[in-house]
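Researcher: Next entry in the queue.
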Amino acid sequence: MININGELLFEQNIKLSTENRGFKYGDAIFETIKVSNNRIIFWEDHYFRLMASMRMLRMKIPMEFTLEFLQKEILKTVAAQDNAASYRVRLNIYRKDGGLYTPKTNEIDYLIDVKKNIYITKEVYKVDIFKDFYSYSGLLSTIKTNNRMVNTLASIYAKENDLDNCVLINEKKGAVEVANGNIFILKGNTIKTPALTEGCIKGIIRKKVIEIITKNPEYNLEETNISPFEIQKADEVFITNAIMGVQPVTNYKKKQFKADFSNKIAKSLKVLEFTSGN
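Model: Structure for this entry, 278 residues:
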């Protein structure tokens, strides 16, 4: 079942207009959210990121769009699915139909799509650099809009080259993120992750991992620019997103990595997930 503006419909009955602005112009944003045992993981963080993104894109936020309202709509949609322990929820917000580049209105519609979460952490995980196109730095790149063409092409490139993922780079040739998440590297006792000014998504799990690391006095955390060469010289590399949590990278080009620190972070994140659900 799909939730469109509060109405639950069978997937085969969904009809979007040819004037849908998410389809025609990518005039839409989304949140990918994990629901586990009827608990929305890190829901407040997702909600406030969504509100900030809507304001930045000049979308009119409906009065009823409270944290409690959207939480209820998500769980209502989850309850309409086949039973599963974990779900992947995509909450899509798009401006109402009409207009060309200039929309007829800034009012919005929403769609909630729910799928079973089948992701399992991989023991072998290979990545490389995607060089064909840049993921440009800038504030707009930190928002999860529907314009994910570079991510799509990088994912195709990964599949064609027997990789699990690709590192995206910006116009300054610095690492930004991977096709579907943020990236962290460990060298000695220093952990680095690309700064938001490099153009990476303002990831929820990125934020949580930064919180975990900064509470540990043994390590230093730097949000900075990272060159692809630094990745190759790292002791460990891991990537994060709301569904996979923490996925250690085992292979980058000809380099092989350990996953000791990555696995510790993954365990700490699990504890946060357990205590955060609504």
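Model: The chain has a mean pLDDT of 96.
Researcher: Noted, moving on.
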